[in-house]
Write a structure and sequence with these properties.
Elements lengths: L3 E10 L2 E11 L4 E5 L6 H9 L6 E6 L2 E2 L10 E4 L11 H11 L4 H15 L14 H13 L5 E5 L7 H18 L2 E6 L2 H7 L2 E6 L2 E6 L1 H6 L4 H6 L6 E10 L2 E5 L4 E3 L2 H9 L4 E6 L4 E3 L12 E11 L3 E7 L4 E7 L9 E6 L5 E4 L5 E3 L2
Helix pairs in contact: 2-3, 2-4, 3-4
The structure holds adenosine-5'-diphosphate and magnesium ion.
């Protein structure tokens, strides 16, 4: 049983707060992905779990043990890094065997562990090669092999795929997930790549500036981001943010962005008013701004507006366009069948069901649900 619990965990390097009051419980055998921009504290969190970095405050538990003062070698953890750190003068077999020898595992057992790992990773035919004779993907497997033979309670992965090219990264992602199912160990996987996080995690932990912003399934963080940071970080092309003023218009409350106004349901209007604030950020994803060709099947009162097409970027199955409404530029995705041309003026409509409204003051999501 290797549940991992971080309770009020903090890490300071001098004046730098690298990790700020992190609370997170990772269930036994769960695969959790921690995602956030470079410098947000991901590596520091992993290193503290591994025992390679002392914690400034809080508590870390692995299984039923408090490990704050436990040496790394006693935590039964294996960490796989971005740089594989293989010994260049040793062949694959010896690279994998090295840790086992250090731990005085007898030779027959050592060989059986290595052979099992080699089969799982499909590297049996590489055992006599040196790291210099391997491709990036093969080296990554060897690094994984070293971790697997230790039969750890917890695997820690620190951006292990970032040195691989795009295609191999995709393939290795899938393999890692399968591997996790076979190994039945708890895994904490760190990446700055939100696409990787979305595809790999059953549960994603979004971190910024050392603090957890949101924990949830990929769809939850995508559809119901807790704040503007998560909304902007998850999803590509990124969500559009349009600063708006709250106004009364006839009997209704609207968000006015200078170009057009966005009607609010009465309850939502009241909620925004109750903050006593005037300015909000309206968020809408590119795929939720559509050409108003009257087949969108959106309610007729959803806001539509005219915009000029400034940039056209074919992405393959879709076209990303930048449109300008006067005050604002937004990115929208349209079908690759679209006949749009640069400088066309088009009518667009917003899918309000998918929109988000954020408080300008705190960034937290305040609507629509
Ligand atoms: N040994 C260290 N000494 C001083 N500052 C550090 C040290 N390690 C990390 N930091 C700082 O802590 C913050 C988090 O770093 P890190 O955990 O490496 O981020 P990430 O892995 O998300 O890119 C950064 O501001 C980084 O500069
Ligand atoms: Mg890092």
């Amino acid at each position: 049983m290797a549940e991992v619990v971080l309770k009020n965990v903090c890490k300071r390097f001098g004046d730098v707060v690298a990790v700020d009051d992190v609370n997170l419980t990772i269930a036994d055998r769960e695969f959790v992905v921690i995602v956030g921009p470079s410098g947000c504290g991901k590596t520091t969190i992993l290193r503290m779990v591994a025992g390679l970095e002392e914690i400034t405050g809080g508590e870390i538990r692995i299984g039923d043990r408090m490990v704050n003062d436990l040496a790394p070698k006693d935590r039964n953890i294996a960490m796989v890094f971005q740089s594989y750190a293989l010994y260049p003068h040793m062949n694959v077999f010896n690279n994998i065997a090295y840790g086992l020898k250090m731990r005085k595992i007898p030779k027959p057992e050592r060989e059986s562990l290595i052979s099992k790992a080699a089969t799982i990773l499909n590297i049996e035919n590489l055992m006599h090669r040196k790291p210099g004779q391997l491709s990036g993907g093969q080296r990554q497997r060897v690094a994984l092999g070293r971790a697997i033979v230790r039969d750890p309670d917890v695997f820690l992965f620190d951006e292990p795929l970032s040195n691989l090219d795009a295609k191999l990264r995709l393939q290795t992602r899938t393999e890692l997930k399968k591997l996790h199912e076979r190994l039945q160990a708890t895994a904490i996987y760190v990446t700055h790549d939100q696409v990787e996080a979305m595809t790999m995690g059953n549960r994603i932990v979004v971190v910024n500036k050392g603090a957890i912003q949101q924990v949830g399934s990929p769809l939850t963080v995508y559809r119901h981001p807790a704040n503007q940071f998560v909304a902007g970080f998850i999803g590509s092309p990124a969500m559009n943010f349009i600063p708006c003023r709250l106004r009364r218009k006839m009997d209704a409350t609207v968000l006015d962005n200078g170009d057009f106004s966005i009607p609010l349901a009465p309850a939502l209007g009241k909620r925004l008013q109750a903050t006593g604030e005037n300015e909000f950020i309206f968020g809408i994803r590119p795929e939720d701004i559509m050409e108003n060709n009257h087949n969108t099947q959106l309610p007729v009162d959803y806001p539509s507006f005219k915009a000029g097409v400034h940039v056209i970027e074919p992405l393959g199955k879709e076209i990303s366009i930048d449109i300008n409404t006067g005050e604002h530029t937004m990115t929208a995705l349209v079908s690759s069948d679209s006949k749009l041309r640069l400088n066309d003026t088009i009518e667009m409509v917003l899918n309000m069901d998918k929109s988000r409204i954020f408080r300008t003051t705190t960034g937290e999501t305040i609507g629509p649900d």
